[in-house]
Amino acid sequence: MVLTMTKLKNEHGLSKPNEENRLARAALNIFARQGILIVFVIFLIGFSLFSERFFSADNVIAVIRQASIIGVIALGVTIVVIGGNLDLSVGSLLSCCTVLVVDLHDILGPFQAVVIMFCAALVIGAINGYLIGYLKLNSLIVTLGMLSAIQGITLIYTGGQNVDIQNQSDTWFTFFGRDYLLGIPVPIFIFIGLGIITEIVLRTTSYGRKIFSVGGNPTAAIFSGIKKNKIVFSTYLISAFATACGALILGSRVMGSQNNVGQGYELLVLAGVILGGTSLIGGSGSAIRTIIGVLILSFIQNGLLLLSYPYYVQWLVTWAVIILAVWFDIASTRGRLFTSY
Amino acid sequence: MSSTVKKIKKTSMLKKLKKITFEQPIWLFILLCVIGFSFSSEYFFDLNNFKNILVQTSTIGLIALGLTLVMINGNIDLSVGAIVALSACLAVDLQADFGMFPAIIIGLISGVVLGALNGLIVWKTGVDAFIVTLGAMIGIRGLVFVYTEEQSFFANDFAFSDMGSSSIAGIPTLALILVGFAILVHFILAYTIHGRNTYAVGGNRQASIDAGIRVGPNIVINFAICGFLAALAGVTLSSQMGAATPNLGRDFELWAITAVVLGGTKLTGGVGSIVGTFGGVIAIGILRNGMNLLQVPSFYVLVIMGVILITVLFFDRQVNMRLEKEVGR
Questions:
Q1: Which residues in chain B touch residue A331, judged by CB atoms under 8 angstroms apart?
Q2: Can you say whether residue B299 is alpha, beta or left, with left for phi > 0 and alpha for psi between -120 and 50 degrees?
Q3: Residue at A25 is within a domain
């Protein structure tokens, strides 16, 4: 990271348009574009040098499995952010959905519980989408209000108590969180599978291109006949759906739930999305890079724990990594390290 | 060009009237709340209860004052909750070594330094303030845990908790601190060059740069003030309890943002006032207090607060759209 930055500085100082520099510039361009990937690899190498267990298959699978809940939600939030908005309500929506699916499991049975949970999530997503897409209210404030409201609804529903599933042995509901396919945990399949689907939708379908254009330049998007309201509305449905998937994994893994289990998730999710290089202004971003962003945060956490640092040291490292990553990204497009004013 | 100027002049009287009524609808809301709660609870309309409300809101209020400056500047500060915890832990823990006042001052300085650091990063790197302070929110919470090693502190010196419950001339000290700083920040914002520059930078950063305003220092100073007030909120909060825990102040940033937005400050920057923010703070305080007195379960309060936030935003938008049409834009 530091090395590449000094390189950037030098490059800016000695920028001469000759042949020798062209190669360096191309290399720099790769650094700038794939900076986050390089940081990721450096972290992986660094940790595996100091800890033998870090790069073992067991550990890597455990980390990705842990990351899958935040990761799945982050995929949905990525789409919202590409569309030029924010979603802070995912944390309490996660609490709400997990509580709902766990509580209804014993009352109605697993299938009905899952269906109702997804319906509830989509209703809340639709409310968000209507307020932000059609009434054009500020997304930060609306989802902040929803964060508070959904947390309240969850608490009212549970009466402040925690819920759990009584008979944990003979239900297929454990499949999403605890089972393995081909020796790999199911959450990883859900996480990576949804990631690939999201990336394909974003890159190859006209719907994906519309999301990018709505986030990049809303006015131009409207003038080119894109129904902006509808697109923004749909991004919130997707975000709510992704959160419901996260709740499915979480509920099935824990088979119980506290009523504030998702508290603070919204900002962790956002940290992963930002680390993946998705611009908060909208119009750029990618699902694969969000996956990398989330994985970086998880591997930092895991690596520092394996090196026997206390768990809160990861927060300090996260602070530095987030700001440096975004700074580096901005500096490379700006062409200089610091702002000019 | 000239026709629009004429139009603006013609409608200026009307606009002024509408401005008073609509720009800060929060005061109207407060009036309605006070009337409503007074009729529904016999304990509400009472001088002691009003003092109580001021004390209860002093923490969120102080944070919201600083946040108003930052948000008028077109930025946002999510790290205030973590700064509250850090300054509270420093102020309580260091009392044993340095005495009460030096410890409090160290706590306040930590807030100023971290606020200024946020501002400096926003200025120099050009990274969006949301991202910078989101990172800082996570990182400063890490600092708190590194410092406290997950332990809670309590103040051995009872003078500290006495300060939190003391009153001057019948008015609680914490309420006086809130009102005093509200007046001070209002003065800075409304009557000083720094205040005018704050609006200018938030309204149009590029134009402010072109006009020769020192945009960077302006941003840094506002972040430093915000950090200071958050740290002060941490000190007052810990003096209320005589103790500090590393988890103090979680979600405070969200409450403070709610108060500031209820007060009419725009997230895009350039618009807002301390009078409005104070109204937002009082509104939250009155709602919480009134619903407590009516024995509404605290779970419902969360829902009601969320709904009110969105509703205020909705009406604010409608009013603004109407105003814009009348000005002829």
A1: 125
A2: alpha
A3: no
Which is more confidently placed, B80 or B316? B80
Tell me the ipTM for this assembly.
0.81
Burial B288-304 (b: 16+ CB within 10 A, else e): bbbbebeeeeebebbbb
Q: Which domain holds residue A264?
A: 54-309
Work out the minimum CA distance from B210 to partner chain A, whole angstroms.
10
Inter-residue contact A221 to A207 (CB < 8 Å):
no
Q: How far is A280 from chain B (nearest CA, A)?
A: 8
Q: Residue A278 sits in a domain of what CATH number?
A: 1.10.3470
Q: How confident is the model at residue B5 (pLDDT cuts 50, 70, 90)?
A: low
Q: Do B254 and A148 touch (CB under 8 A)?
A: yes
Q: What are the tens digits of pLDDT across the range A293-320?
A: 899 889 888 888 888 888 888 889 888 8
Q: Does domain B22-327 have CATH number 1.10.3470?
A: yes
CA B134, B136, B141, B144: dihedral to nearest 10 degrees? Answer: -170
Distance (Å, rounded) from C-alpha B290 to C-alpha A256? Answer: 35
pLDDT digits (tens, 9 = 90+) for B248-275: 888 888 889 889 988 888 888 888 889 9
Q: How many CB atoms lie within 10 A of CB A28?
A: 18
Q: Which residues contact A37 (CB under 8 A, 6 or more apart)?
A: A292
| Inter-chain CB proximity A141 and B267 less than 8 Å | yes
Q: Cβ of B140 and A338 within 8 Å?
A: no
Spans of all domains in chain B:
22-327
In-domain check, residue A332: no
Find out whether A165 and A159 touch, Cβ atoms under 8 Å.
no
- How many domains are there within chain A? 1
How far does A159 lie from chain B, in Å, by closest CA?
8
Q: Does residue A325 lie in a domain region?
A: no
Task: Please state at what angle helix A139-158 crosses helix A90-108, rounded to 10 degrees.
Answer: 30
Half-sphere exposure of B78 (CA within 13 A, CB side): 22
